[in-house]
């Protein structure tokens, strides 16, 4: 294998493999790509969910979908019919397996697993020099998907931390026709906790505790809540744990990294891949991979995630700030949103495919007072600061 490539992708996770699989399927055999991935094997380490259309195939072959989802807060329960765009579940092992198989069939794309990038790549004689645990590689362009190592509180408006277990019970305990999107627990010092349950069958489910909070949380911070949530759902039914998953997703990243040299782009979860108000990233990453593959195959530079429209960014940030300042109202706010907004409009909005009418439907569904209070409070603070500045 030559050590020089047109494109080097750092990290073969969701973003890296999504791009590499598209390049493998493209006919531009003259365009060579290397994916450098530090893990030495892939496991079923996560479950991707999103609202989708028809059932897909290949690396997007969903394993399960639901037409009804439930939100609960205190005594309030909202059932949402999402049959037009069902909530779909894609196990990571399906995605990884299909992407790796597509890459292995293409001579112009190589995946090197068990290979860690050791230092920040530098440019030498017009090419990026990437030092890895398997030697030095050189590329005209780099797509860097590596997440930053430790998320820091100030890096995002809120963090979505979750810890879940997929469990199999000895007898039926789950209603497999309806998923629990958000079952709110009382807000506490770590943030806004809720339980998320994906009932794969009457005996099997992924039960997850999620917290929207100002600090990123580790499994140990969520373990007790998860244990309680599982116990409440299985009752006295014997069960075994099949696997666990943990994640920390940014909600409203304060800065998106950008390299001044446009032949080196940073993408993925920690570089604009996640939608601010949901933390969901899978579909945005797929849209980016489509566009980026087309760009490089056509002879152009790789691209970053497209930023959301300014109005969407403003809406997301206002909503996240209301959650930050009113954590005890979060359950009621989400229930109001899902109860009052037209489901198709809301789902398009949450999936980043909304129109102006969808944005308006979301605004109309939310109780105005927490938002007005926040905006008025901010204005008053600005006026006070200006006044203080003039007096100084
Ligand atoms: C458990 C979990 C569940 C999620 N569920 C959903 C969901 O339901 N819906 C949704 O939309 N989003 C979800 N997400 C968010 C998002 O879709 C995923 O995090 C997604 O994997 C992000 O893709 P990525 O390529 O940015 O990062 P990753 O998939 O994490 O890929 C980054 C890759 O870089 C590699 N790497 C890191 N350092 C190095 C190095 N030095 N050298 C070489 N390789 C390196 C890593 O091993 C990894 O494979 C979830 C995230 C997690 C963690």
How do the helices and strands line up, and which of them pair or pack?
Blueprint: E1 4-10, H1 14-25, E2 33-36, E3 47-51, E4 64-66, E5 68-73, E6 76-81, E7 87-91, H2 92-104, E8 109-112, E9 122-124, E10 127-132, E11 135-144, E12 156-169, E13 178-184, E14 192-201, E15 204-213, H3 219-234, E16 239-253, E17 264-266, H4 282-297, H5 310-325, H6 330-340, H7 343-350, H8 356-365, H9 369-391
Helix pairs in contact: 1-2, 1-4, 5-9, 7-8
The structure holds flavin-adenine dinucleotide.
Flavin-adenine dinucleotide (FAD) is lined by residues 10-16, 36-39, 46-50, 116-117, 145-147, 245, 247, 249, 268-269, 273, 280-282, 285.
How would you briefly describe this protein structure?
The protein is of the alpha/beta class and 392 residues long.
Major sheet: 7 strands, mixed
Radius of gyration over all CA atoms, rounded: 22 Å
Q: CATH homologous superfamily name of the largest domain? A: FAD/NAD(P)-binding domain
Quantity of strands, as a count = 17
CATH C-level of the largest domain: Alpha Beta
- Report helical residue fraction: 25-40%
**Which molecules are bound in this entry?**
flavin-adenine dinucleotide
**Rough shape?**
globular
Query: What is the H/E order?
Result: EHEEEEEEHEEEEEEEEHEEHHHHHH
Question: How many domains, in number, for the residues?
Answer: 3
* Structural class computed from helices and strand pairing: alpha/beta
CATH architecture of the largest domain: 3-Layer(bba) Sandwich
- Poorly predicted runs of 5 or more residues: none
